[in-house]
Write a structure and sequence with these properties.
Elements: E1 2-8, E2 17-28, E3 33-39, E4 42-47, E5 58-61, E6 70-77, H1 91-98, H2 103-111, E7 120-127, E8 132-138, E9 143-146, E10 152-155, H3 165-181, H4 187-198, H5 208-213, H6 218-221, E11 227-228, E12 233-244, E13 248-256, E14 267-275
Antiparallel strand pairs: 1-2, 1-10, 2-12, 3-4, 4-5, 5-6, 6-7, 7-8, 8-9, 11-12, 12-13, 13-14
Protein name: Ser/thr-rich protein t10 in dgcr region
Organism: Holotrichia oblita (Chafer beetle)
Length: about 280
């Protein structure tokens, strides 16, 4: 389970942010991962699980091309049926960010892919001097959707047209935070409020869709911040990405130090900045 919220504004006012992206990575605590790092023009954490090494759940490219100044990609699994032994999906984010394909071209290639993969949502954000756009694809519905005219979006572990209750709630709170604190002079408070949202342990029930997909753990999974200590699973990484009016990008990652002490985790902050 993971959760992602995206704000985009193609015509921001001076001293505000043109894009704000926040996410939680929910994963087994024992699964090894590399902390936020930059490899050439690609920034993000990396999977270190054997046979999944190098895959990414979320990342950005700051390589400037004729089509864009910045690209973001994120993968969220579709909960429910899960087949063992299939190819990992982390390459989807990596291949997108390392290529120079537009999201249109890349997602159209996903629709024609014959790879047998467990269900996923793939979300991309592209930013250029002329435009900004959010793109969505799921291999379950085989649907590719452009969301250019929607400034605030939320994504979870279901199809985009059947959001979990915590995603609906999170979108509203995310929008409230942006409306109140979207100014570079409020950066510290903005970061604090965004992190508070990502750490929210309020349960959002009833949720018939979540209960159907996760009958055993749906109560625990109804929170934005997931903690299932008895399963060794939870929200172990927070990501916050800011792009301001002057094309400065900041990528903040708060992640649990490995090996993770479930009862008393140590949180580490990494920050990478770039001029777009």
């Amino acid at each position: 389970m993971c959760i992602l919220f995206v704000y985009t504004n193609p015509n921001p006012q001076p001293n505000t942010f043109r894009s704000i992206i926040i996410a939680n990575r929910d994963e087994y605590y024992a699964r090894p991962a590399q902390q936020l790092s930059k490899v050439e023009d690609v920034i993000g954490g990396r999977d270190l699980e054997p046979k999944r090494e190098g895959g990414m759940w979320l990342g950005v490219s700051v390589k400037k091309t004729e089509n864009f100044n910045f690209r973001f990609g994120a993968l969220l699994n579709i909960s429910g049926d899960h087949k063992q032994g299939l190819k990992g999906r982390g390459f989807i984010v990596v291949n997108y960010l390392e290529s120079e394909n537009t999201a249109d071209k890349y997602m159209n290639s996903l629709t024609s892919s014959e790879d047998e993969l467990n269900g996923y949502n793939f979300v991309a954000v592209e930013v250029s001097k002329e435009k900004i756009g959010t793109h969505y694809y799921s291999n379950i519905s085989k649907s590719y959707i452009r969301c250019d005219d929607v400034p605030v979006l939320g994504f979870g572990n279901t199809l985009i047209d059947m959001p979990l209750q915590k995603v609906v709630y999170g979108c509203d709170k995310f929008n409230d935070v942006i409306n109140e604190f979207n100014n570079v002079s409020n950066r510290d408070v903005l970061l604090e409020k965004l992190l508070e949202l990502l750490k929210s342990n309020e349960r959002h029930l009833p949720d018939a869709e979540l209960e159907k997909r996760q009958p055993t753990w749906y109560t625990d999974l109804s929170c934005i911040f997931v903690e299932i200590d008895r399963a060794g699973y939870g929200s172990r990484t927070h990501s916050i990405i800011l792009i301001d009016y002057d094309w400065n990008m900041e990528f903040y990652e708060d992640t649990m130090k490995e090996p993770i002490d479930i009862e008393n985790p140590t949180w580490l902050r990494n920050v990478i900045k770039a001029s777009l």
